[in-house]
Amino acid sequence: MSLEETTGNLRDQAKRNYERVKNEIITEEKQSILSDYQADDFDSVLLIVTAPRGGSSLLFDILRHHEGTCSLDGEHDRWFTLNGICYPALESDVVPADFESFDREKLLTDLLAEVGATDRSGDRTHRVDNTLVRLPLQFPDRELPYEQIRDQLLAGVSLDEILEELGILPLQYDKYAERDANSPFEAETIEDRPFVSSHRHKRGLTADDFERTLVLKASGDAYRLLWIREQLFPETDVKVVHLTRNPAASINGLYDGWRLNRGFQTYDVGDLDLKGYDGSLWCYDLPVGWVKEGNLIDVCLMQWAQAHRHILDGRDAFEDILRVRFEDLLTDSRSTIKEIVEFADLGESTLLSENVENPNKVMTTKEPRHARWRDREDLVKNALDRADEPYTEVVEELGYTEESEWI
């Protein structure tokens, strides 16, 4: 059986279980929203785009605490994957602007499946619903007792207890993955496990919430900006925040992530022979020109450069784009967030202000520390010295030519 056939079978199984959960297991209130609305019914969308390890998880987590926003619990790549808009149906993560071989109505409904509205009081039932709709994507090869899981979650049983009863290692799921598994994840999955988490200040959607701004972020969007503008949200007010981060820090973060067994794996592309990598699965985004052989550090550099190159090439499709440096988000958080909030026309938010003062640690590979890339400075610098286009052009366009600013 070919890789595409195997992937297709797994996707079919995930779809079947997901449709059952969506139509039979989650609350009637959520079922009603998903039958009457789609993601493009929001008045506006704020799209955060960057290269992987660019800091978008931190920015997304801060912005989704704004009471004027709605959001998913993590990246939305899994819904594109579920709908076959990914490798191996496509040669890379690039989705051509004229790509129409997908069910638009279904994808827009799926994108809404775990969206919640930010509200200080929150809603535990919403978090239970979101856990249930994700399980078929996280464990597509398992026939899980979804009704039982729902009842246990509503009764207050912790998810790790439930998973262990089912013979599933909690390390393979969400917040329990801050440490490595004993071996690389080999099981097929629809979702890029495991960094998905809700927060307690979210509740289920109501009809009035579609007047809010939907915040979306996925590093893969760097490769599908034109398609998003022309095919997915052609009539929606979409504002784009282009988040940048210096190449050394980003590449170092990618190098760390590739070498950890924490769920950054995305694709089975066949045998890999990358110096510095012992795993068997591709990690993070799949850029144009991806290779199976060579040095891992060079692949990481390619992932950074290609993502930003595609963002820069796709910016003219949008009227409203704001470029923000992750370095500024770290060193001048309040002013940087204020600029983004004003750009997105979100207004004031007490809950957001509290979160800016004490942000969560999200999707980190190691304890955050300025200029951590200097721990392997020689490896990183040698890769940068070997690099040519598009790296050299991107560094120039993004203004990262001064190494002294690389924190």
TrEMBL record:
Location of the Sulfotransferase domain: 46-348
Domain of life: Archaea
Keywords: Transferase
Pfam families named among the record's database cross-references: Sulfotransfer_1 (PF00685)
GO molecular function: sulfotransferase activity
InterPro entries: P-loop_NTPase (IPR027417), Sulfotransferase_dom (IPR000863)
Protein name: Sulfotransferase domain-containing protein
UniProt source species: Halorarum salinum
